[in-house]
Amino acid sequence: MSIPTLRTLARELSLSRTTVSDALRGSPRVNAETMARVRAAADAAGYKHNPLTGAVMSQLRRSRGQQFRGVIAAIELVEPNRAPQSLRYSQAVKDGINRRASELGFKVENFEIGPHGLRLSRLDAILLARGIQGLVLLPAAGFPDMTELSWHRYTAVYTDYLIDHPPLHCVCADHYRSMVTLLQELYARGYRRPGLFMEIALDERLQFRWEGAYLATQKYLPEITEVPPLRIESVTQPQFEKWFRKHKPDVVLGHFPEAMAWMTKCGARIPETHAFVCLNSLRTDGDCAALQLPAAELGARATELVIAQLLHNELGVPAEPSLTTLKIKLLEGPTLPARKAAAATGAKRKVKPAVGPA
């Protein structure tokens, strides 16, 4: 039995090869009825369209035969008045995308969506014209909506926890496991009153992973005083100081390094009597211990997944979206010394695991 080709499909359907090719890649130049007829015939014949072919041939013509495998798009939803740490994080993710794409023989084209960038309808037209079908979506504030794109043409991975519109594969930092690991490390260093403060919007955006791990782990570590987390709409000094004076945590975890000054105002001496860990190293200047989010690694892993899906011709919204998580590292700093005597005492007792098989 002969292998079906564009030529045989075109002959069977009495259409040109161009029309058949356009129909298989979802070109708006082909009407819906013809597109459906071509795709039905291709499925019946067992024809498998390679989504990279058009992009490869186009680039080969431009590059005069240099080695090349395809093009993917890095798409960023840009909001006005972005914080500096957000810009640095996005750039690190893009660095990871570009590095891994280059290693795999792919070129990356960058696009910005937002008030000062492209509209989704315009982006859709550009991606189609350039034959780009692999997309890496950078983290966005809130819960992004990308449903306007013609998703039957694309495969994509989102570099954050959750996207519902449409539901896509995601790659993100493992915030839950990292909080568990951090609390166990603090316990080993002798801290017994860990306290967590965070803005409600951030807690919700992470689907309560920081808070959930914090609350669960406190219950399984012996001799731990359960300090309730401070969750507020916007972190302010008066609210923090009220919480700090009432619950007296000996180590504070949060996203805002300015809390160290507030702790000092309440009588804490860092690191002699209290410790502090920032939950995002991009918010610091290296002046405190912090968790380092794997931004570049997220971009690289998302790129690998997108390219793998392209090579397997897996286009469209996935039936079962997956979540891939990467480890967050603790960066040592002057605000987190070990309390050797207390740590030695605690080490004599067996620590129950904070998480485990159900």
From TrEMBL:
Keyword Transcription included in the entry's annotation: yes
GO molecular function: DNA-binding transcription factor activity; transcription cis-regulatory region binding
Record flagged with keyword Ligase: no
Bilayer-spanning residue ranges: none
Domain of life according to the entry: Bacteria
PROSITE patterns for the chain: HTH_LACI_2
Residue ranges annotated for the HTH lacI-type domain, each copy included: 4-58
Key words, A-Z: DNA-binding, Transcription, Transcription regulation
SUPFAM superfamilies: lambda repressor-like DNA-binding domains (SSF47413), Periplasmic binding protein-like I (SSF53822)
Protein's recorded name: LacI family DNA-binding transcriptional regulator
